[in-house]
Design goal:
Helices cover 28% and strands 18% of the residues. By secondary structure, the protein is of the alpha+beta class. The strands form nine sheets. Strands 1, 2, 5, 6, 7, 8 and 24 form a seven-stranded mixed sheet that branches. The protein has a three-stranded antiparallel sheet with strand order 12-16-13, with no helix packed on it. It has a two-stranded antiparallel ribbon with strand order 3-4. It starts with a helix and ends in a 9-residue tail after the last helix.
């Protein structure tokens, strides 16, 4: 027994010493673009701040492949978000920024307006590594401490007293205490662990009196559906042969019914056809060509839109997104992701990576793929100079939607379609109500179809309420949530754009700093004071149009 005493004492002492305590006025959990703008704003308002990031790379999707920015109306993007796009513009003014093509060859390619706006000195389309450098420059210039690869202990890592978060603990045994906390993750893990109520999946239309929420069976807004009759069975037309992979045998539900389904995730791919910078598509471990039999049938039906969303970004690269009935969106494979354990999420991400790598490899190599499609795909590959520490593969899966807080104000399609007044604006959105497919099912006629892909024009920019980034006071008094905002599924389809996350990150930090100064709960903050500070810092709270 005595022999065990010293090792036991040593172990206890080691564990105590290993526990590191960090204190700051504002503690930000997450490594997204919103996390960075929130940290910069907090620092500019004279507050101490730390970023506690489960990610190694800062910027989330903005540095993870989404370089063809979903801007909507650029005139309502202000503050630090606009500063980000200005810094991107300044980068591409440098001659050495153009390694793989001449600046004049790229030209003004964008979504209706120039990618490079000389008048506004902004650029909205960029390479992943350029975005990451801008985010890293932000934290370096403002001397912001970033704790990377730090994962919240979701079971018992949040300490609350009298309705306030006092501290959070990560799995590495670091404790971060603060006066205000901001959850800037795509998943809303801190929000959930703090006991704040949230929703996962699609609400029924009846919940908020909406039209475009819930299951949207039979609604085909974009081109991401089967345009011809294609059999989902292993033996075409024979249900007894069983379903092909990636097709559900479940009833899709009636239009407007709520469910727990999540719009599909994918990786936004940075590809190139420059021979000196191209890496051939790798064959993933566990590759199974049978997974893509349905894609082969789509090709054989005459579909030829594979390359329609190979959107050009500088230096002969792309931001390649999902397009078509069987594309990079891994439909139906993410339903348990929002509430899943870290281990399970890692499995889901790995399965998405295997699927998407296999999708490219299949098209480029399987002899059954039509020659015109395959020959074109062989010209493309991963960009050698991007994501160098991850095999040139994006480090961030596109978590289009996970948890959504149920806060003091819920944004719905009524607000985003400007049918209802929005109180206490802290930023603006303008992008289409955009949801990707949530399921692939068998229709009563025995053919396959996708469901969930919705696109509804907002007509004009809309305000986003302060109440949508704060929880109800009874649930937490010192937390702000600028990413998993309080909104319905279909409203989030518009709000979920990266520029908006940057805007809301800045606004959240502004509110946090003012609440600290006033010794108030975030719910008790005087909006007129918040509004004045936001306008001073060049946020755009109303549209001039």
């Amino acid at each position: 027994m005595k022999k065990l005493l010293f090792p036991l004492c040593f172990l206890i002492a080691t564990q105590v010493l290993a526990q590191q305590k960090i204190d700051a006025d504002v503690v930000i959990y997450g490594g997204t673009s919103a996390a960075v703008t929130a940290a910069v704003q907090a620092k500019q308002m004279g507050k101490s701040v730390v970023i506690v990031s489960p990610d190694t790379h800062l910027g989330g999707l903005s540095s993870g492949g989404l370089g063809f920015t979903d801007t909507g109306d650029k005139s309502v993007i202000g503050g630090l978000a606009r500063e980000f796009y200005h810094r991107v513009y300044m980068h591409y003014q440098q001659p050495d920024a153009w390694q793989w093509q001449k600046k004049e060859e790229y030209g003004n390619k964008g979504q209706g307006t120039p990618a490079m706006d000389g008048t506004e000195r902004t650029m909205w389309i960029f390479e992943p590594h350029v975005a990451e450098k801008v985010f890293e420059d932000f934290v370096k210039e403002h001397n912001i401490k970033v704790y990377r690869d730090e994962w919240l202990d979701r079971e018992k890592g949040v300490v609350k007293k009298r309705g306030n978060i006092v501290s959070i603990k990560t799995l590495s045994n670091k404790i971060f205490s603060g006066k205000m906390f901001i959850d800037a993750t795509y998943e809303g893990d801190l929000m959930a662990a703090a006991g704040v109520k949230y929703h996962v999946g699609r609400e029924a239309n009846s919940v908020y009196g909406e039209e475009w929420n819930g299951a949207q069976t039979g609604i085909l807004h974009h081109g991401h559906h089967f345009k011809t009759n294609i059999s989902p069975y292993k033996v075409p037309g024979d249900p007894k042969s069983g379903l092909l992979p990636k097709v559900s045998d479940k009833d899709p539900g009636k239009r407007g019914e709520g469910d727990d389904k999540i719009q599909a995730y994918c990786f936004r791919m940075c590809l190139t056809r420059h021979p000196d910078n191209r890496v051939p598509f790798p064959k993933p471990e566990g590759y199974d060509p049978a997974q893509y039999e349905l894609l082969l049938r789509v090709f054989n039906s005459g579909w030829r839109e594979t390359f329609n969303k190979f959107d050009p970004i500088p230096n002969r690269k792309t931001d390649t997104n999902n397009h078509g009935p069987f594309s990079t969106d891994n439909i139906g494979m993410n339903y348990d992701y929002p509430d899943a354990s870290y281990v399970r999420r890692k499995e889901i991400i790995a399965e998405h990576e295997q699927y998407q790598k296999g999708w490219f490899y299949f098209i480029a190599n399987d002899p059954r793929v039509p020659a015109d499609v395959q020959n074109e795909m062989k010209k493309w590959g991963l960009a050698k100079d991007e994501f160098r520490d991850n095999g040139n593969w994006p480090h961030q899966l596109y978590i289009r939607e996970a948890r959504r807080m149920i806060g003091t104000h819920v944004m719905t399609e009524h607000e985003t379609l400007s049918k209802r007044e929005v109180p206490q604006s802290v930023g603006m959105g303008s992008y289409t109500l955009d949801s990707h497919n949530a399921q692939r099912y068998v229709k009563p006629d025995g053919f396959v179809q996708n469901e969930g892909d919705i696109g509804v024009d907002t007509k004009q920019p809309y305000r986003i309420s302060y109440g949508s980034i704060i929880p109800k006071k009874a649930e937490c008094r010192n937390l702000l949530v600028p990413v998993c905002v309080s909104s319905s599924h279909i409203a989030f389809g518009s709000i979920r754009m990266e520029p908006v996350f940057m805007i809301l990150g800045q606004s959240a930090a502004t509110a946090a700093a003012l609440a600290i100064d006033g010794k108030k709960a975030v719910q008790d903050l005087d909006y007129d004071i918040l509004k004045a500070q936001l306008l001073k810092d060049k946020q755009r709270l109303v549209s001039n149009k």
